[in-house]
Amino acid sequence: MKHQFSFIVYSLFWTIAGMILLTPPNYAQTQEQEIAKCLAISNTVSIIQAQTEIIIRAVYHQDNLTWLNTPAQTETTETGTNYSNIRGEQTVNLFIPTNQEFCEITIGDQPKELGNLITENMTKGTVSGTITYQERIALPLGAVIQVKLLDTSRQDVAAIEIASQTIITTGEQVPIAFALSYDPNTIQERQTYVVRAEIYLDEQLFFTTTQFYPVLTRGNSNEVNLVLNKVMSEQNQLTGSQWLLEDLTGKGVVDNVQTTIEFGEDNRIGGNGGCNRYFTSYQLDGTNFSVNLIGSTQMMCPPAMMNQEQQFFQALEKAYNLRLEGPYLFIDVEGSDLPLKFTRL
Predict the structure, then answer these.
(1) Which of 37, 233, 257, 278 is the most exposed place for a label (fewest CB within 10 A)?
(2) CA dist., res. 270 & res. 282, Å (int)
(3) Is 80 within a domain?
(4) 3-state secondary structure of 305
(5) Among 207, 230, 253, where does a domain finish?
């Protein structure tokens, strides 16, 4: 009986010991501190300080899948620091040069992939995320992706650019990662900041964001996933659309006065000048925009309405450029630093 009890205790001891030895550590649940992150087009590779070990972690953007999470070995030379995985089916190397201007990811025998480096001690802030679209269209080689961080706080002027990034694809497909570095001193909590993205093929706009993606302030994060929409030509986008004037070249608008512009077929435009209906034709070549002489009805209205209408007609006849930015239409006017600004009806 004594020997049987000893055998049970002995077996139980080695069973528990085996469970401890064979169970791999869960690095994701230990206390972590991110040392560096490399954001490339296909993957994000992070270096994590987990208690006493350095962890290398890789996430594939296509599926948002963490496919590597293992201890790393480190090698530092005069040119930079290289991190590589100790375990795993494929060898993953993350190289961070001494100047920290970029980072390199190498996975197995695949070509090196350059990325944007984010480190814990960076003095710059970062807005990061992914770009995708819903259409089942493959991006060809050489597609140009432009991502911008914009200050859209002022309603009377076009958005102010805070940071930008240009990505030239080499065969990668969406979702594609981006990272925008900015000076935190330029950010004010009361202001509104958004991220906008565009994809160009052969210098022609192919995809663009059509809604606001707010970041940084007013409770918004510094990470955002952008969904772009396929772009029709400016002409096709305008035909049949109606717009309400929000700002008359920086002068504002008279309260409760509806000044509109409507784009019809055959390059015809018209609308309400605030008092009278007006009509004319226009020419559009790319973003180059011009308007012919305006005709209108001849009703009389209060002086403030008549004055604004006259200024609107004069500005429209001096138009030279048109651009669509999200829900807004901007028409640049000769002799004015600020445009006519409309919102879609």
Answers:
(1) 233
(2) 10
(3) yes
(4) helix
(5) 230
Query: What are the backbone angles phi and psi of residue 82, rounded to the nearest 5°?
Result: -115, 130
DSSP for 9-72 reads HHHHHHHHHHHHHHSPP-TTTS-EEEEEEEE-SSEEEEEEEETTEEEEEEEETTTTEEEEEEEE
∠ CA 186-189-192, nearest 5°, is: 85
Query: Counting every residue, how long is the chain?
Result: 345
> Is residue 297 packed enough to be buried (19+ CB in 10 Å), middle (13-18) or exposed (0-12)?
exposed
Q: Can you tell me the distance from the alpha carbon of 140 to that of 271, in angstroms, rounded to the nearest whole number?
A: 41
* pLDDT tens digits in sequence order for the chain, 345 residues long: 545 545 444 555 545 444 444 444 444 444 567 778 898 888 999 988 776 678 899 998 888 888 999 998 888 777 888 899 988 888 999 998 877 778 999 999 898 999 888 865 445 688 999 999 988 888 888 899 999 999 988 766 678 888 888 999 888 889 999 888 887 878 888 899 999 999 998 888 888 898 889 999 999 999 999 999 887 656 667 888 899 999 999 999 998 899 999 999 888 999 999 999 999 999 988 778 999 999 999 999 999 999 999 999 999 999 999 988 878 899 999 999 899 999 988
Residue ending a domain, among 210, 230, 250, is 230
What does DSSP say about strands 125-133 and 223-230: parallel, antiparallel, or unpaired?
A: parallel
- Please check whether residues 137 and 50 belong to one and the same domain: no
Domain count, the chain: 3
| Prediction pTM value | 0.44
One domain, residues 173 and 210: yes
